[in-house]
Design a protein that fits this description.
heterodimer; A: 358 residues; alpha+beta; Rieske Iron-sulfur Protein; Naphthalene 1,2-dioxygenase Alpha Subunit, Chain A, domain 1; 19 strands; globular; B: 178 residues; 6 strands
Chain lengths: 358, 178
């Protein structure tokens, strides 16, 4: 397909021409065409359920995190009655962000421009000089932060959508929930997010990430070949790639109608924890943990999902991804958190081990 | 000036020379020699650096056990070096060009040190990296080292904490060592 620099693929035909799912082939244009990105901005990100936070980041009233839904900055906060709310991080007066930190605990969010303040539910509670500047004629009840209409959790993960008519989160997750449970529902108490978020900027279209996590386990043995070389006893300068034993074991690949996908391997517990035991004392502790909890998890989730991290990569469409990886416990979740442009995205990563007793 | 700690000039000189030597090993990719500067119990740790409200500023850095940019003990730092040396480490093939600049070296005796045998050393760094055709990264930050006398290069690094002055990591990767 010949394209001039000013012309969009969409002018030539439909999106269907760019994706040949029968052959498993896609056009590179889907990663580069600004018109496709514009359509995603208009039709996809405002409608999809997007990951916001882990509930453990929002334990107490007033706990908040700031993040993004597509291009829109949002605040996620637990209000006084325990509800987790999402609201646009933009003052209703002149649009300035009212929250410029990553997380914390607050009673009010105050705009640094003219001092308008909003409480935990987004209600406008203070307008400086309301009498002299507005002659008390401003209806403050009409100028609260714009709420994100729907916020819902699935086993600790908080998602939201701008689409009031979107299906429920559970329907949206569909069969993907079954796979998510092997990370989120292994034991009573679920998971918690460790403190700290590893934030990077991804130089590339967001769909490269989505496609990657939805099912490209093929790359690992080559792209990441230096990792097993590092922890093996091989001569690093001369070592050939060590093809992981997992690559020759039975695996699974799932692609849901909603766009979700995951791929991984069915490994025996012994194969998994045996690999960990060959590494360090810290890894041996993790192996002990998996061995000690395996029966409990098997009773809860069944044999297929009890086996611990197994080289699984997964995508909850469009932008939440996670890894269950035996060499890098505990499970790591990532999400595109800052509005994708055609060619870059902000990405945050969290670590979500089973919740510790407290 | 009262309160300004003044390290012994000879110790200051020795430690600065050690840090310059270490920077040279990194910039010349002499990783096998570099790893030997670390003690057997060494930790090499770089916390994440969050934006917090001023009143919460004590919580900007993640703590031990939380998410980190680097979190190595001596064994896994050795893995990192082996990875840098591996024949198929694509992030560093072709290798980055780096210049580690070390300055503002502040030295205080370790409380458990005997006289002049162990020091807490804080230094500022800028690491310039030029990679592939035209990629440039500049990292600035602070290193907090525990140095003890001994070892092939006169000093051994016990613990190293790296405070990177970035919230979002702005480089494509962190395939360098600080």
């Amino acid at each position: 397909m010949e394209l001039g620099p000013q012309r969009s693929t969409l002018e030539h035909g439909s999106l269907e021409d760019l994706v040949d799912w029968r052959r498993g082939a896609i056009s590179g244009e889907i990663f580069a065409d600004p018109a496709i990105h514009a359509r995603e901005t208009e039709q996809l990100f405002p409608r999809a359920w997007l990951f916001l936070a882990h509930e453990s980041q929002l334990r107490r009233a007033g706990d908040f995190v700031s993040t993004f839904m597509g291009a829109d900055a949002v605040i996620v906060v637990r209000d006084g009655d325990g509800t987790i709310r999402g609201m646009l991080n933009a003052c209703r007066h002149r649009g300035m962000p009212v929250c410029r930190v990553d997380s914390g605990n607050a009673r009010v969010f105050t705009c640094p421009f003219h001092g308008w303040s909003y409480d935990r539910s987004g209600t406008l509670v203070n307008v400086p000089l309301l009498d002299t500047a507005y002659h008390n004629e401003l209806d403050t009840t009409a100028w609260g932060l714009i709420p994100v209409p729907r916020v819902a959790s699935y086993k600790g993960l908080v998602f939201a959508t701008f689409d009031e008519s979107a299906p429920s989160l559970l329907d949206y997750l569909g069969d993907m929930a079954w796979y998510l449970d092997s990370m989120l529902d292994r034991r009573d108490g679920g998971t918690e997010g460790l403190g700290g978020v590893h934030k990077i900027r991804m130089h590339g279209n967001w769909k490269l990430v989505a496609e990657q996590f939805a099912g490209d386990n093929y790359h690992a043995v080559f792209a990441h070949a230096s990792a097993p070389t590092a922890w093996s006893g091989d001569d690093p300068e001369g070592a050939a790639p060590r093809f992981s034993g997992s690559m020759s074991s039975a695996g699974r690949q799932f692609a849901g109608r909603e766009g979700h996908g995951t791929a991984g391997f069915f490994l025996s517990s012994k194969a998994l924890t045996g690999g960990l035991r060959a590494m360090t004392d810290d890894h041996r502790l993790v192996a002990d943990y998996y061995d000690a909890t395996n029966d409990e998890v098997a009773d809860r989730l069944g044999a297929e999902r009890s086996r611990g991290p197994s080289g699984t990569a997964a995508l909850v469409f469009p932008t939440f991804t996670y890894l269950e990886e035996s060499s890098a416990p505990p499970p790591l979740g990532s999400a595109i958190r800052r509005g994708p442009t055609t060619s870059s995205s902000g990405v945050g990563s969290w670590s979500t081990p089973p919740r510790r007793p407290r | 000036m009262p309160g300004l700690p003044l390290a012994d000039a000879a110790v200051q000189h020795e430690i600065e020379q050690f840090l310059y030597f270490e920077a040279e090993l990194l910039d010349e990719r002499r990783y096998a020699e570099w790893i030997e500067l670390f003690g057997v119990d060494a930790r090499y740790w770089a916390p994440t650096h969050a934006n917090r409200l001023r009143r919460d500023r004590g919580t900007e850095l993640s703590v031990q056990g939380e998410v980190a940019l680097f979190d190595f003990d001596r064994t896994t730092l050795g893995w990192r070096v082996r990875q840098m040396q591996a024949s198929m480490h694509w992030a560093e093939d072709p290798p980055s060009r780096t210049r580690h600049l070390v300055s503002n070296v502040r030295i205080t005796p370790l409380e458990d040190g005997n006289g002049d045998t162990g020091f807490a050393v804080r230094s500022n760094f800028i690491c310039y990296r030029n990679r592939l055709a035209d990629e440039v990264d500049i990292w600035a930050g602070e290193r907090q080292d525990e140095l003890r006398r001994g070892g092939a290069a006169r000093w051994t690094i016990g613990n190293r904490t790296i405070i990177l002055d970035q919230n979002v990591v702005l480089s494509k990767n962190l395939s360098v060592l600080f």
